[in-house]
Design a protein that fits this description.
homodimer; alpha/beta; Rossmann fold; 5-stranded parallel sheet; 8 helices; 11 strands; DNA-binding
Chain lengths: 224, 224
DNA sequence: TCCGGGATTTAATGTTATATTAAGGTAAAG
DNA sequence: CTTTACCTTAATATAACATTAAATCCCGGA
C-alpha cells in the first residue's frame, strides 16, 4: 500500500513516516502543498494524507485541485484547527475522512485502514487480448491510452468473441447469441457489425483482428 | 469485522456470504429469526443484516427483541416488499438502515461500510464524486459552497448513481430500485427525473454529468 | 374541512444514436 | 470463370432518449 503524506512540520512528519513504514506502508513524504499536488498527480497512491496548514498551497486547495482533475484517490485531512468550518469544507470538497490534531497514532492508522477498506470494492471486470481491453461494466473499449464507448451491438459481438478466444463462431452463432434465438434478422447485419468493429479496432490501433474463415466463422487473432 | 447475516433463501445467502467473505468480513449465516436472535445475543457482531421475511420470527420482531434487550449493534434490514410501511416500522424500531430487494452487492457493501463507519466515528455519511457531495442523512446535495435539499426521488436516483460509479444503470434498473419492482409507473418518469437532476447539477455548477448510453443506461461522469 | 404548494406523474413533442435495409463490391473455392 | 460467401458503404427507419408543460396527487396548515 502506497501513501502520500503531506505535512510541513518536519519532526512530526519524520515520526509519522517511521510508524507508517513500520506498519508496512510505503510512504512518500512531502512538505508543502505544491509538492503534494505534483506527487499526487504522478504516482498512483492508494491514499493521501493532507495537512491543512501548509506552505504554498493549503490542504484544502490541494484537495480541490485533485478532485477537479478527476483524481479520486481517498484523502484524509489533518488539521490543527478543530473548527467545524474546515471540516465541513473539507468533506464538501471530497475528502474521505478528517482527523483533528493532535491525534494518536492508533487513530491515524485506524482511519487509514478504514479509508482503504472503503475503496477496495471496485473491481473492474476486464476482458483483454493483445493490447485491447473491454470493460464489461462501462462498455469501454481501451487500446493504448484511447478509449471508446461501444454501442450495444458492437459491444455484445466483441464480448462474445473475447469470451470465445480461439474458437470460430459462425454468423449464425453470433446472430443467435446477440439478436436472440427467434430473431428474423438477416445474417447480413452481422457482417455489417463485424465491419464496424474492424474499422473501430483499426482506428484505435489495436493489434487484434477479426479473422474470417470461409464457411466456418470468425475469431480474434493477435498480430505479431 | 464480524457480521451476522440472517436470510432464509439459501442460494442468496450463500452468494452474499461468499462476497462478504471476499471483502474480508467474518460472516455468520443463520436462516431463521430465532437463530438470528440467539446468535445476536451471544456473539458480539459489528453489524447485523436481517431479512424481514423469515421463518419463526421475522426481521422486525428480531430487531425489536434486540433493542428491548439493550443490544445496540447496528442493524441493516432487507426486504422484498418495497412498501414504505416496513421502512418506517423498521427505522422506528431502531434499524440503522434499510435496503429493498433486489439489491446490487455494491449497494449492500456500501451500506454496511456506511453503518460501520457511522458507529466508529461521527463522520457524516457522504457520497462524493468530482466537486459534488451528497449527504445521505440530510438529503443535501452540495457543490462548491452551495447546498440544496433534494426531493426524495431525485435524491434516490442520485444516490443510486453514486453507489454505482462506473456502472451503467438502465431505466428499468432505476425504476425497479427507486419505484419498486412492482410499480406500474412508466420509464418516462425516470427520464423526467434525470432531466430534473441534470438541470440541478448544471445550476449548481457541478463538474459531474449524467451520461446516457443508448440501449445501455446511465452513469455519472466527471468533466475534465 | 378545504386550500395551497410542492412533489410526482402524465402527456405531448422534439431529437438523435444506432439498428436495419439495400445495394454494389471483392475474393476464395471449385 | 463462375459461384457464393463475405465485406463495405450509404441511406433510411425506429425506438430510445430529452425536455417542457400541464395535470394530478398529497400533505400540512388554517
Amino acid at each position: 500500500m502506497k501513501l502520500l503524506y503531506a505535512e510541513d512540520e518536519r519532526s512530526l512528519s519524520e515520526a509519522v513516516v517511521d510508524i507508517l513504514t513500520f506498519h508496512k506502508y510505503t510512504v512518500d513524504a512531502v512538505f508543502d502543498g505544491q509538492d503534494a499536488l505534483d506527487y499526487a498527480e504522478m504516482g498512483d497512491y492508494d491514499a493521501i494524507i493532507l495537512d491543512i496548514m501548509m506552505p504554498k498551497k493549503n490542504g484544502l486547495e490541494v484537495l480541490q485541485a485533485l478532485r477537479a482533475k478527476g483524481i479520486q484517490t481517498p484523502v484524509l485531512l489533518l488539521t490543527a484547527k478543530s473548527e467545524i468550518e474546515d471540516r465541513i469544507t473539507g468533506l464538501d470538497l471530497g475528502a474521505d475522512d478528517y482527523l483533528p490534531k493532535p491525534f494518536a497514532m492508533g487513530e491515524l492508522l485506524a482511519r487509514i485502514r478504514a479509508m482503504l477498506r472503503r475503496r477496495e470494492s471496485f473491481t473492474p471486470n476486464l476482458l483483454t487480448l493483445g493490447n485491447l481491453s473491454l470493460n464489461q461494466q462501462s462498455y469501454e473499449l481501451t487500446v493504448g491510452g484511447k478509449s471508446e464507448l461501444l454501442p450495444k451491438l458492437e459491444y455484445q459481438i466483441l464480448e462474445l468473441l473475447l469470451l470465445n478466444k480461439g474458437i470460430f463462431l459462425s454468423t449464425e452463432d453470433i446472430l443467435v447469441k446477440v439478436w436472440g434465438y427467434d430473431t428474423d434478422a438477416d445474417v447480413g447485419v452481422v457482417w455489417v457489425y463485424l465491419s464496424y468493429l474492424r474499422k473501430r479496432l483499426a482506428g484505435l490501433g489495436a493489434d487484434v483482428q477479426i479473422k474470417a474463415k470461409r464457411g466456418i466463422g470468425y475469431t480474434l487473432e493477435v498480430q505479431p
